[in-house]
Description:
It is a single chain. This protein is α+β, with helices and mostly antiparallel strands. It has helices at about 1-10, 15-25, 30-45, 60-65, 110-115, 120-125, 165-170, 175; strands at about 90-95, 100-105, 105-110, 130-135, 140-145, 150-155, 180-185, 190-200, 205-210, 215, 220-225, 230-235, 250. It has an eight-stranded antiparallel β-sheet, covered by helices on one side. Strands 5-11-9 form a three-stranded antiparallel β-sheet, with no helix packed on it. It has a two-stranded antiparallel ribbon with strand order 2-3. The protein is globular and about 55 Å long. The relative contact order is 0.21.
Amino acid sequence: MGTTRRVLLTALPKFLLSRSTGLVTRIPLPRFARRIAYGMFARRYGVELSEMKGELGDYRSLAEFFRRPLRDGQRPMADGPLVWPCDGKIITSGTITGDRIQQVKGRDYSVAQLLQDADLAARLDGGYQMTVYLAPKDYHRVHSPFDGELIATKHIPGALFPVNPGAVESIPDLFPRNERVVFHFRLPSGHDAVVLMVSALNVGDTLVTAKPGTLAKGDELGQFGFGSTAIVATPKTGPEIPDLPRETAVRLGQAV
């Protein structure tokens, strides 16, 4: 099944499908239709509408609804040096060893390839990583998991493979192959850390909202469209990220 899925996903016209989906989701809906359309989507995917800021009718298009903000106070930041950057489920987490991050059990990929920066990858070797999958039901914004200075933001073009569990198991080097944005931070300790927003099928329109400068834990970095993956890497001096079971549910702002 894995080989068949890999062949089909590789052959799929992913950019065309993603751009077409993006155009459709950005079509403004009449106000009377918004509650019906978004309500159907929420029931289909299990969206928690009580956390949403405003009302369903406030969002002009499905794309706006995907990026919906939370009501004030929904995700308070926990004490400590590191919090989860988004809602979602763990794909992998734990240590970075020999320039490799585990994608799934028995398969890993290069940090240097992921970042397109061998020097930065070397400074993160021996550190820690978390890879979190955001499903369609999740809050689609990614926030800084720590205090630090955002030094630079880099967009890396790439493919748009899906990042659901089946695709992660089937596609080698999936995350370094997909389009992504790298947020390069300098921590208060003086060490480097990174946050990545990895695009996916139907999520080729990642919006960066943060600008270089000093950011506090919980400040917004960017917004996804439909659902995708966030990766955080910290140096060996910490903050540490534990090795957690796959599919562990996490929530923005909770202590790691």
